[in-house]
Amino acid sequence: MGLFSKDIKTMEDMFVHGLQDIYYAENQITKALPKMIDQATNRDLAAGLKAHLEETEKQIGRLEQVFKKLGKEPSATDCPAIDGIIKEANETAGEIADKAVLDAAIVANSQAVEHYEIARYGTLIAWAEELGHDDVVRLLTTNLNEEKAANTKLNNIALRKGVNKKAVA
């Protein structure tokens, strides 16, 4: 089946593994965001990323509550997907000299992260519901809604706040 199949025998195992994956991802994101904030020259983009960093720290706290409600210690498992997205973002940023184009790349790379998180949280919510973990669905749904809102804000920054238009100019 895959790299982790020896540890995953039940749907519950899969659910916990998914939680460990997103827990790792959220922690990696808190490490990556400060660099993106420093690189951003658009004020709205930098402010949005700063706000999302604070939000991500709260999301980590909610995930820790989920682990606790399940009787588990919060733990992470490597997530090659988020590592790849962050690596690509860093490599892309290192190749762009034009600050306006860099801002557009930061938006795009941030949206790749958001889309990954949206997919993960959606799956985890569906699994939690199926497994009868109704006590954690609200916490996961709050995180999902914040990720969707962050994606919408990034769209707004790119399209309405002029990041894409400035990058083209």
Into which percent range does the helicity of residues fall? over 70%
Q: Would you state the CATH class?
A: Mainly Alpha
In total, how many domains does the architecture comprise?
1
- Largest sheet, described in full? none
| Straight-line distance between termini | 49 Å
Calculate the mean pLDDT score and round it: 93
What is the radius of gyration?
A: 17 Å
Assign the CATH superfamily.
Ferritin, core subunit, four-helix bundle
Q: Do you know the CATH topology?
A: Ferritin
- Low-pLDDT stretches: none
Name the structural class.
mainly alpha
Organism: Tardiphaga alba
Protein name: Ferritin-like domain-containing protein
Coiled coil: 46-73
Keywords: Coiled coil
Which descriptors apply to this entry?
169 residues, mainly alpha, Ferritin, 6 helices, elongated
Q: What report would you give on this structure?
A:
With 169 residues, this protein is an all-alpha fold. The protein has one domain (11-168): Up-down Bundle (Ferritin). The chain has six helices and no strands. Helix 1 (11-39) runs parallel beside helix 3 (80-95) and helix 3 runs antiparallel to helix 4. It comes from Tardiphaga alba. Keywords: Coiled coil. Residues 46-73 form a coiled coil. InterPro entries: DUF892_YciF-like, Ferritin-like, Ferritin-like_SF, YciF.
